[in-house]
TrEMBL record:
Subunit structure of this chain's protein: Homodimer.
Chain residues that bind L-histidine: E95, G96, T97, R127, Q141, E145, R274, Y278, Y279
Family recorded in the similarity comment: Belongs to the class-II aminoacyl-tRNA synthetase family.
The keyword tRNA processing belongs to this UniProt entry's keyword annotation: no
UniProt KW RNA-binding keyword: no
Catalysed transformations (reactions): tRNA(His) + L-histidine + ATP = L-histidyl-tRNA(His) + AMP + diphosphate + H(+)
Protein's name in the database: Histidine--tRNA ligase
GO CC list: cytoplasm
All residue ranges annotated as the Aminoacyl-transfer RNA synthetases class-II family profile domain in the record: 1-340
Source taxonomy: Bacteria, Bacillati, Actinomycetota, Coriobacteriia, Eggerthellales
Domain of life from the UniProt record: Bacteria
Record EC number: 6.1.1.21
Biological source species: Adlercreutzia caecimuris B7
Enzyme's top EC category: ligase
Length: 438
């Protein structure tokens, strides 16, 4: 029986893989203008990092992490009951922030008094969720993290940058909704959390089992519950924005004023609590409405001023976001936007017969060395079928080489768009291609 890709994973076939490359390139260009530099951290980290950073009680950590273990350690565990040491307890990263913050702390990238570290990453994340459209077990994210700055200008510029990126990749602005909230800080959130817990206790009879557990562990997660009855109860719950401390209210107000000033349209959503424990103050999410069902968040993030300390570093404010590549592809499809074909073919060299193959092969190399995407036939196709192949590859030009042309030291160069032909000397093909393309 044939073996398929694991459940919840997808192959990015060439068209999509090319788009993924382009997507990362666009991110590097857009985020680069805001001073973000690339960082590449391991796909595995010590499980403890996620437990401490993201929070033990979160869905991501308590239910959705993939453990990574060497075959030998697994054998020892199963056969000899010897659990791996903490250092060897690894998990595949369910998100990118914890690893980047760990790297910033480990390499002291933000020494006291330094300018903020602005970092961006792209790569696969792993969550053992129930797969469905737009929800995979391995998916690709592009994300940024800015560590060392607390000012609301960082929050606002990150949000503006995220929206610029979506527009640059072609997601229509009118199909997106930008949601904004503040989650307060360690000064104001604990008291607010208790108020929500008390409110939930008073409405315990109307809440689902999961929300009753949430009331104990993390009541704010109940705002996320999809059960309509819970949603109705939580709609009347105390709102965080009415319970922010003065500093958080001022910070949130400044972020909104900066976004207003930049003409960025957003909706305040007090229900936006996001699933990870590390968020403080500003949180945001971008959703698209058409055709994506419940998996309609294409990106989101927020501030995490306590995370560096959680993972053992000095107090360093931070903010970041991540966006899902596969969901952006779905959003583009839902909006009827074709993602651009990155593949191009500048020249196809067609052989009239086998006697010219060696010279054609050399010509193909010369053109490639000059930077032109060049292809030839490798299957002994007839001339007619080589033209068909050139068409299929979208070749802009076809150079036909036959024994007569070879004797004369030239090719027939055909422009596939205008159907015009010209004889070009073999040694001038590269020059002619440069002129034509320029
Ligand atoms: P999160 O870290 O949950 O805020 O995720 C950030 C973004 O990654 C989301 O807005 C989605 O676009 C994407 N994402 C998260 N989980 C998945 C998943 N299981 N499958 C596909 N994309 C995901």
């Amino acid at each position: 029986m044939a073996i398929n890709a694991p459940e919840g994973t997808r192959d990015l076939l060439p068209d999509e893989a090319l788009f993924w490359n382009q997507f990362k390139q666009t991110a590097a260009e857009v985020f680069g203008t805001y001073g973000y530099l690339p960082i590449d951290t391991p796909i595995m980290e010590q499980t403890e990092l996620f437990v401490r950073g993201i929070g033990e009680a979160t869905d991501v950590v308590s239910k959705e992490m993939f453990t990574a273990i060497s075959g030998e350690n697994l054998r020892r565990w199963v056969e000899e009951g010897k659990a791996p040491k903490a250092k060897s307890r690894l998990s595949l990263r369910p998100e990118g922030t914890a690893g980047v913050v760990r790297a910033v702390v480990q390499h002291d990238l933000v020494p006291q008094g330094a300018a903020p570290a602005k970092l961006m990453y792209a790569g696969p994340m792993f969550r053992a969720e129930r797969p469905q459209k737009g929800r995979q077990r391995q998916f690709n994210q592009v994300g940024v993290e800015c560590l060392g700055a607390e000012e609301p200008t960082i929050d606002a510029e990150a949000i503006i940058m995220l929206m610029r990126f979506y527009e640059k990749v072609g997601i229509p602005r009118e199909s997106m909704r930008l949601l904004l909230n503040s989650m307060g800080c360690e000064q104001c959130r604990p008291a607010y959390r208790e108020q929500v817990r008390a409110y939930m206790d008073a409405h315990a009879g109307e809440l689902c089992e999961t929300c009753l557990t949430r009331a104990e562990v993390n009541p704010l997660r109940a705002f996320d519950c999809k059960n309509p009855q819970c949603a109705a109860v939580m709609a009347e719950a105390p709102k965080i924005t009415d319970h922010l401390c003065d500093d958080c209210r001022e910070h949130y107000g400044a972020v909104k004023a900066l976004l207003d000033g930049a003409g960025v349209v957003y909706e305040e959503d007090y229900k936006l609590v996001r699933g990870l424990d590390y968020y403080t103050r500003t949180v945001f999410e971008v959703q698209v409405d058409n055709g994506m069902g419940s998996q309609n968040a294409i990106g989101g993030g927020g501030r995490y001023d306590k995370l560096a300390e959680e993972v053992g570093g000095r107090a360093t404010p931070g903010l970041g976001f991540a966006l899902g590549f596969e969901r952006c592809v779905l959003a583009l499809e839902a909006a009827g936007v074709e993602f651009p074909r990155a593949q191009r073919c500048d020249l196809f060299v067609a052989c009239v017969d086998d006697t010219v193959r060696a010279r054609a092969f050399a010509l193909v190399q010369e053109c490639r060395d000059a930077g032109f995407v060049t292809e030839m036939d490798h299957q002994k196709r007839s001339l007619k079928s080589q033209f068909k192949l050139a068409d299929k590859l979208g070749a802009a030009r076809v150079a036909v080489l036959g024994p007569d042309e070879l004797d004369a030291g030239e090719v027939t160069l055909r422009d596939m768009a205008t159907h015009t032909e010209a004889k070009v000397r073999l040694e001038e093909v590269v020059g002619e291609m440069s002129r034509a393309i320029l």
